[in-house]
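Re: the 239-residue chain
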Amino acid sequence: MTLHGAMIAVLSGHKDKTMILTELSDEIFRRGLYAMQDGRQASAGQIRARARLNTYKHLFNLLDGGHIRLVQKGEFISIKTKELEELIEIFKNDYSNLDESLAEIKLSQDKWTLKEIIGHLIDSASNNHQRFIRLQLSCDIELPDYKCEEWIKIQNHQNMKFSDLLNLFICINKLMANIISNINESSLQNKWHVAWDENSSFITLDDLITHYISHIKSHLIHFQERLNEIENGIRLSSV
């Protein structure tokens, strides 16, 4: 069992799903749920650090007085649904009237255009749509990953209108938000077996949802920075 899995197992059976970090550390070790590779007990500091990781912070609240609380049933799903809906509104409100000519400017071969950034987010949605559904139908799944650069090259988003790409991004993510809002919490620990990173050979549905939304947030920043680059370049060339 992983450390965060052991934290969930102990906290879920405790009053108010809240414990002092040191007591949680002791209880995990006492039950034999998790130990370090050398057999030592995971410390309160290690548990605190795990709860602060982006991957797990949606599962735990760190409280004053050295306490930790397991996020209550329904909280995770409602929070993630709201986060995605807010991102959809930002893209819709800020970029629906973007000049088409700006969206297709390619600053260099290694920099995506604004069309390609939105195209990549559509690809992410289409791939994760499969994952979100299949991870509710099976406890364990195996699906191929995708290589984003190859997908962008094959689709040639540059030939499409930016407004069409943005509308598709908005619509498919409204569907994704609806899927998240209707997820049965019992499926959140179901696993997609994939070489996710150097430390894990799988990712759970709850972690995948968190990653999906964080990915959109990172590309929102990416999009605005690229737009700033383009507009600054135009201003400099007109001087």
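The domain at 75-237 is CATH 1.20.120.450 (Four Helix Bundle (Hemerythrin (Met), subunit A)).
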